[in-house]
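Team,

Forwarding the record for the chain on the shared tracking sheet. I've put the sequence and predicted structure together so nobody has to dig through attachments.
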Amino acid sequence: MKRKNTPMPEQGEVREAQTAAASVPEESASTEGAAVSSELDRDFTFFSLLGYILPTIFTLIFIAVYQMVDGIFIQTFTEGDLAIAAVNLYSPVQYVLVAFGLMMGSGGNAAIVRLIGERNKESADRVFTETAAVAAAGGLLLSAVLLIFSDPIMRFLGASDVTIQYLRPYFFSMTSGGVIIVLQAAVGFFLIGEGKTVLAAVLTVIGGVLNCLLDWFFMGVLHWGIEGAGIATVIGYAVPVLYTAYYYLSRKGQYRFRKERFSLKEIGHVMFNGSSDMVTNLAAGMTVFLMNIIIKKYAGDEGVSALSAIIYFQIVIVAIFSGFTMALEPVFSFHFGAKNRAMNEKLFRYSVLWSVILAVFVSGLAFLLREPIVGFFFEKGTALYNLALRGLMIMIPGGLFVGLNSFSSGLFTAYSNGAVSAFLSAMRTVVFLVASILGLSALFGSDGLWASWPVAELLSFLVCLVTLWIFKDKYGYIRPRVKKKLDALHKKEK
């Protein structure tokens, strides 16, 4: 029997708070600052930049793949389609938790690495402490609210009298560990901000493998049902969280927890700067919810099944470029803080080239493997297979534009310009995508729904090009040739 799987969120890792001595000697602080710089302050070449970002790309792809394996275990050891439906119904809640974590991690990391680039280690440590503490407190508060209002929330998500029996145990097992989900999404940015991309990848792999093993044990051996899947997922997420907590509490990391008065202004800046990541994730949950309703109207339950397979393809594509952007953000933040204009320009050029190369490669590969991709989920020749294949063919061109769109928003997050970053994310994932879903599906039915993603990405691509051009002088990532020649001449004269 062919298997279906569910959309998944994105990723992260983490720690708690420790009271490090606020009075660190000056030499020690500058040494620590230099240690952080050594990972980011290097002369990247075209290929060394790819080597730096690949572990983070791999991390997010791995998360996508192990979520698929997770779905296979759920279908094998539980009531199959009903259990999978419950996981799908829960996904918007998980998107909310992950969105908050990404907002804190992304916004905090950009500020921290920029301060490190400015050699302001003490302020960087303070922002690090504030970000970790607010992420943990916010995760606890969100979990409490979701648990208190669980029944109305489950009904709002579309649970019927039948599916709520499967959703309820999964909802409680996952949401009880909501703070872990938030922290896992948030604090992994700090490891990547230190340049520890391989460590972040290894921790995610260990957590993912443990999740799959516990799925088998809890559901296959102990017969805990779908509740066991939720517990296994939270434990898997806890691995990077606990290790990263140990990493910083034992002072192995470059950042230090400081016992100081919190600055609401700094926290507000962190949250605003990371809001683009929150918008993207919240919009993902909202659009999955919206697309489920519309495809059911045009293609019934078969359409919903086909959509789940296509969304998985979309998630893998987005994961590749989210990893690409996530790895690049701290590099740009550091050199922006260090006022290294030449490296900033070179990094921008290499990043744009790699985003284009990867987009063409991934989209071309998806086109060549379109039949095996759909065949993994549905039996070839069936109506469901044909519907999913048609949908995938229409959606594939969207992959050509995702790279630059994701990078553009992340670039402004790295520069601590949360307003522009949030604007680009909102236009891409809310305005253009929702308008395309509603408008194109009304005009062309299910074909219009499949086309909504590539159309939204194309429109976003055009907006990103204009935005990058408008801000090129302010941030110095593009310099006219004449200016370059004058700068070179000025150097020679010196």
